[in-house]
Amino acid sequence: MARQERARAAAGARCAGDVRDDRCVHLRTQRRVTMNPRIEYLLRAIVLAASGLMFYTKISDGTLAFYINQRFAWLSLVAVILYVALAMTMVYKASLHRRSERPLGESITFDVIPLQARNRRRLSTHRASWLALGLLVLPALLGFFTPARPLGASAIQNRGIGLTAPDRVGTVTQAQRAATGPKNILDWLREFSRAADLSAFEGKEADVIGFVYKDPRAKQDEFWVSRFAVSCCVADATALGLLVRTPKAEMLPVDSWVRVIGKFTMGEFAGERIPIIIAERVEPTPQPAQPYLYP
């Protein structure tokens, strides 16, 4: 160890007086492009801990449901545990590196490797370290500083709205589970998909909750009461809706949550005959704790 320190000191003294020496150029380059391993491990620990805290915050305040299907929420809890464990591992690795007396970022090596090849390798490692930290910190920053809100009318404009919701083979439908209570939008669309004749729904009462979406193809006295169905996460979300006819349609703000009570009648939208709700009551309602519907 003493011999290595003397070698470093001698190299530093030589470099101070001779900038033309290839070894000196190499040492100066290393001071610019390397990161102290201890500092790097601590930074990784901070980023990993922040990511775990972000997931825990989403779980505790209930906004996790804005991103994934509720049946996968336990995986987020597992992620919190893994992030904390990894952060502790980084702290432990940092503790193994004794605090250096050299300035931050300085690293001196004496391996016999061509100067240009060594510089390229060190520069690549340095960039990879910062890139890895950046990739870790970006989701945490987005999670903390981006307001959490569910998908709404603007997402429907990009994805379109579904008029059918077929049953998945081998599953118990939500309509079957909710046989004793009011059907939601997904339940009604599944009933429509299974029906041989949609006119059989003429006069049936509907009581649904959703947000207001106004399609430019709809009439002035019509709007869509809409929800998103999520199988796994918002990436596979499907917009569903029932067309509502009411004189109050123009006064309803887009994205506002409403409860619609009325009866079905056969109507037409975009050249297709579909059941339409003739609203008897349209009243504002708070956004549900679970804004999505789950197949």
UniProtKB/TrEMBL annotation:
<keyword id="KW-0472">Membrane</keyword>
<keyword id="KW-1133">Transmembrane helix</keyword>
<feature type="domain" description="DUF1980">
    <location>
        <begin position="43"/>
        <end position="161"/>
    </location>
</feature>
<feature type="transmembrane region" description="Helical">
    <location>
        <begin position="71"/>
        <end position="92"/>
    </location>
</feature>
<feature type="transmembrane region" description="Helical">
    <location>
        <begin position="41"/>
        <end position="59"/>
    </location>
</feature>
<dbReference type="InterPro" id="IPR048447">
    <property type="entry name" value="DUF1980_C"/>
</dbReference>
<feature type="domain" description="DUF1980">
    <location>
        <begin position="185"/>
        <end position="295"/>
    </location>
</feature>
<dbReference type="InterPro" id="IPR052955">
    <property type="entry name" value="UPF0703_membrane_permease"/>
</dbReference>
<protein>
    <submittedName>
        <fullName>TIGR03943 family protein</fullName>
    </submittedName>
</protein>
<dbReference type="Pfam" id="PF21537">
    <property type="entry name" value="DUF1980_C"/>
</dbReference>
<dbReference type="InterPro" id="IPR015402">
    <property type="entry name" value="DUF1980"/>
</dbReference>
<keyword id="KW-0812">Transmembrane</keyword>
<dbReference type="Pfam" id="PF09323">
    <property type="entry name" value="DUF1980"/>
</dbReference>
<feature type="transmembrane region" description="Helical">
    <location>
        <begin position="128"/>
        <end position="148"/>
    </location>
</feature>
<dbReference type="InterPro" id="IPR048493">
    <property type="entry name" value="DUF1980_N"/>
</dbReference>
